[in-house]
Amino acid sequence: MVIVLAFLTGGLYACGLYMMMRRSIVKLIMGLALLSYATNLLIFTVGGLTRAAPPLVPEGETVPPVPFADPVPQALILTAIVIGFGVLAFAVVLIEQTHRSVGTDDSNNLRGIEGES
Amino acid sequence: MGLLVLLPLLIPFVTAALALLFWRRHRVQRALGLVGSVGLLLSALVLLVVVWRDGIQVVQLGNWPAPFGITFVADLFSGIMTVLGGIIAVAVVIYSHASVDRLRERFGYYPLLLFLMMGISGSFLTGDIFNLYVWFEVMLMASFVLVAMGNERAQLEGALKYVTINLVSSAIFLTAIGILYGISGTLNMAQLSVQLSQSQQPQMVTVVAMLFLIAFGIKAALFPLFFWLPASYPVAPVAITALFAGLLTKVGVYALIRVFTLLFVQDIGYTHALLLLLAALTMITGVLGAASQNEIRRILSFHIISQIGYMVMGLALFTPLALAGAIFYIIHHIIVKANLFLIGGVVQRLEGSYYLKDLGGLYRSHFGLAVLFLIPAMSLAGIPPLSGFWAKFTLIRASLEENQPVIALVALVVSLLTLFSMTKIWAEVFWKDRPETTPEPAPLSPSARLQLLLPIIALAAITVVIGLMAEPVFILASQAANQLLSPVEYVTAVLGGTP
Fold first, then answer.
1. Can you say how many angstroms the Cα of residue B458 is from the centroid of all Cα atoms in its chain?
2. What domains lie within chain A, and their CATH numbers?
3. Do the Cβ atoms of B181 and A98 come within 8 Å?
4. What is the tens place of the pLDDT at every residue in B169-180?
């Protein structure tokens, strides 16, 4: 299972970076989204894949019975998903505005501040 | 005591939230902006004094014991950085009163500024590596909006580059955190420090260290990851550029220094040698880039890059003196660099341009401004007795003590080229005659004059004071460096008596 997820994660990273290097700024945003999915999957995988019970502490004890699934990577991923969602929403609005003001989807036509004089 | 560590976060947060309630009442928002930033500065100063007197301060959020809950830690280095953040915040808020247009104020300029400050203070004070990521995102989100706000074409293009590169950096940072958790099973920086020093997989630790280097190197604009900075910083309003120039890249440097003193010290021969090489290349490319520019904000932006090289050089040499030099350099640099941008903004306000060819004759028409420019400019180049001289002197001495004459030579040459760049601005903007084609300067109203010049004068005064009273500042910096170099103190403060 780990090997499948490892290849999936690597593939997602590769696709994300490839999309970001395209000239279209819409693909840039898709690349960013793929990159954050890849990261979340990576945290999930390196956190350790165990077929185990949820980490519930039985009444009267202080530690859950082993083996239990580590809850920390899941908490990290949840946080990262929320943050990623917010940032992605902002980025989509930003490219929409850029498209409206520049009138093109091609990042080669972005001149930035160097183009002014 | 615990509340004190959290105050630099809570004050900007509460004032920002209040300011959001007063949406469209920009006068109230302005006042809250000032209250929040002054409160931040005062609480940071108190925190620094307490840390100096009583040692490292630790707060366990929700009273969860150390490795399980989220920890906030204030050591001397964090304290110094938070105070510097407060100083720049106050200066920028006052300057913004006269320089930011109504439209931006109406769309939440001040609350965003305060949220940005909350993110910056949070990054300085957190003791948990994942929490550091969260504060980075808080800070980035506010900075994204501040860069893009205004919807001008150049701004949107600059913002797109800024957002993209920062998101990539965040993704790499998060990847590194994931792998770090995988090999050590903890996120608390103090416990990580213990775990990594006993790690069975030192190669893996070095790989993670390199991921952190790339992630923070992008934020700090380290060679070869700096290209986004001159393309995106100058597009924002100048008050925002000053804040970013002063603080945001330094958050990256702070994070680099923190992880490469506390966590990744297993393989110094490799990691810190690499840092030294990057520092040299950063210094050189930054200053050469600046020499080829002819727009004030872009010249100054390239100088940020070259100065980052000096700070990383201090980290890379990894001796008490060198780290003290790096911290001294950060103190000096934040004040001076923000001030230079603020002065650039006043020049643009008077003459309507940032391009050297359109400017001239300001020495004759505005003598005071010329003097105010000279102080930070000469300090940046390292002319004694200003603050930059002591910073560079310490770093170069540390490199000679470590038998690294090459980096010392690079630092000296770069400082000479910095002087060249500063005299270029001086000659073009202040010394040469006004070009005939430029329209007459626009006079400033008395209140605008006060609000624009007060922060500049205050920052210039701080530069002079640091220069003249270098010894107390240096003692503070070297104490902070000693704390950084003996992580045991940090670890015992966080984890209690069992390091």
1. 18
2. 2-53+69-106 (1.10.287.3510)
3. no
4. 999 999 999 999
